[in-house]
Design brief:
alpha/beta, 434 Repressor (Amino-terminal Domain), Endonuclease, Chain A, 2 domains, 6 strands, 49% helix
């Protein structure tokens, strides 16, 4: 499985492509001037391969980039050579999910809609283990060791809520999630208590979508929208990640992400407020 590119590498590739197109040059022309293979620049621009800082410097000279921006891009190129913590787990993850973890690790904010389980970033370790281990009934080839490594990834992802600055996380949770038994009663109760605790974080925004409330649109797929702050003066587009049994995929198509952003806003407006949602979670824990 090819390594999932970091956002830094994607930013760099996109900016190098923008600078080349600004000069009116084709990838083939650049390859000829630098005596590269015709496909090398294309792979760099699409973040399929890493790029040496010295090669970036050559490209920037060809593109006649001003000195200030050269400094920014060389810093970005150096940062892009650093592997993320998740690289050690890539062989244990689905390819689509490995790319999502790489994106989430550098995101500024995340908007998550879930219909069946508590969002991964808000799961207790006990609850998460039960969810991950249950997949072995559908996919027996998944070993207990792989389940444990995937659990390590899920717990490590949660550190993004406590970093500086923290990930701003907003979740819309279908009310059925609070009522669906996962594990034994104590596992579920402890998970709901944990959910209420994490909802108190200033960077966490929790909304429960009541079963009795009309909702528009009616959505079955879990999805996440990731947004990114500018880095080294280079923008990165919003990313949509769709998660279901048959699809673990990311999308950067502007129209598709816009559609899901509208859907997210509508679902959130149909849900309880953050305070009401936290109260609902606490009641669910007390009922157990």
């Amino acid at each position: 499985m090819p390594a999932a590119p970091t956002v830094r590498r994607r930013r760099l590739g996109a900016e190098l492509r923008r600078l080349r197109e600004r000069m009116g040059l084709t990838a083939e022309e650049i390859a000829t001037r630098l005596d590269w293979s015709p496909s090398k620049l294309s792979r760099i621009e699409n973040a399929r391969i890493g790029v040496r800082v010295s090669d970036v410097r050559l490209l920037l000279e060809l593109y006649e980039v001003d000195e200030r921006h050269v400094g920014e891009l060389l810093a970005l190129a150096h940062a892009a050579t650093q592997q993320g913590w998740w690289a050690a787990y890539e062989k244990d993850l689905m390819p689509g999910f490995a790319r999502f973890v790489a994106l989430e690790d550098e995101a500024d904010s995340s908007s998550n809609y879930v219909t069946y389980t508590v969002p991964g970033l808000l799961q207790s370790e006990e609850y998460a283990h039960y969810v991950l281990d249950s997949s072995r009934s559908a996919f027996p080839a998944i070993s207990p060791q792989k389940v444990n490594r995937r659990l390590e990834v899920r717990m490590r992802r949660q550190q993004s809520l406590f970093r500086d600055p923290p990930l701003r996380f907003s979740a819309v949770i279908d009310e059925s999630v609070l009522m669906r038994s996962v594990g034994d009663r104590e596992t579920m109760r402890r998970q709901l208590v944990r959910l209420a605790e994490l909802a108190d974080l200033p960077n966490v925004d929790l909304h429960v979508l009541p079963l009795r409330n009309p909702r528009t649109p009616v959505f079955g797929d879990d999805f996440t929208l990731l947004r990114f702050s500018p880095a080294y003066e280079v923008m990165f587009p919003e990313v949509l990640y769709i998660d279901n049994l048959s699809e673990h995929s990311e999308h950067q198509d502007e129209e598709l992400t816009y559609f899901y952003r509208l859907a997210w806003d509508s679902l959130r407006s149909s849900a309880l407020s953050h305070a009401e949602s936290t109260d609902r979670v606490i009641r669910a824990a007390e009922e157990i």
